[in-house]
Amino acid sequence: MKKLCVAAMVAATLLGCNVGDDVVEHGGIDVDNLSQADLQNYANITADALTVVAKAAKDCAENLPVGNSNECYIPEIQGNIDVDVAKGLIKVEKQTDRVVIHTIEAMQFTTHNAITNGEIISLTLNEKTDDDYIMTMNNSNQITFKGMFVNTAENDAKYWSTESTSPLTYQYNINEVHPYITNGSAIISGKDNQHFTWSADADGYISVSR
After folding, report:
1. How far apart are CA 150 and CA 49, in angstroms?
2. φ, ψ (nearest 5 deg) of residue 59
3. Mean pLDDT, residues 113-120
4. Do β-strands 184-189 and 168-171 pair in parallel, antiparallel, or remain unpaired?
5. H or E stretch covering 105
6. How far does Cα 137 stand from its chain's mean position?
7. How far apart, in Å, do the first and last CA atoms of the chain sit?
8. What's the mean per-residue pLDDT of the chain?
9. Residue 18's pLDDT band (boundaries 50, 70, 90)?
10. What is the pTM of this model?
C-alpha cells in the first residue's frame, strides 16, 4: 500500500472515523515474515506499554468515587521497563466492579528495543479509533484491552493492534522493582489478519507463539 493511502487512513483514525482495525488490516506489520526474535520484541514492547497505562490508570483511579471520572497524564516509570514515556493523557471512569480506561491523548513513547531503535511509537486505547479500543481493570486488578500501536518515525510506518484473549493481572507493590502483568494472554495482529499470541506467566515473563 502506498504511504499516502496509509497516511490518509491514519488521519481518518485520528478524526474518529472508527477505522482502526482497517488501518492495521491494510498497513499493519507483516507478522508471517517476522523472525521469532522480532515476535518477542514486539510482544515485549506491547506488554511494557500496556503496563505503563495500567499503572497510570490504577493511580489515577485511587480513591475515586463510583460514578466519577478523572483525567491524568501518563508518568514516566522507573525500573526494568523498556519504555520511556514522552506524553499521554488518560481518562478513567470508576464503575462498581471495574475502571474503564481510555487514552484522550495517545501515549507516545520511545524504546531501546532493536525493532524501533529508540523511535517514537504511540499507543491508542480510544473508542474514537474503534468502538472496542479500550482498557478495563476490575477490582482484582485484572485488565482486558484492545488498542493500536503506530510507529510513525520510520519511512514505512508500522501498525499493529493487540487484544487480550484472557485477562492479565496488573501487579505492583512498593517492594517490586517495577510494575508488571501476569497470568494471561493476548494476540498481536498485523496486515491481512496475520497474528500471533503473547502471554505472561506468574512472574511476568512474556512468551510468544505463532
Report:
1. 12
2. -70, -40
3. 67
4. unpaired
5. strand 98-110
6. 14
7. 25
8. 87
9. low
10. 0.89
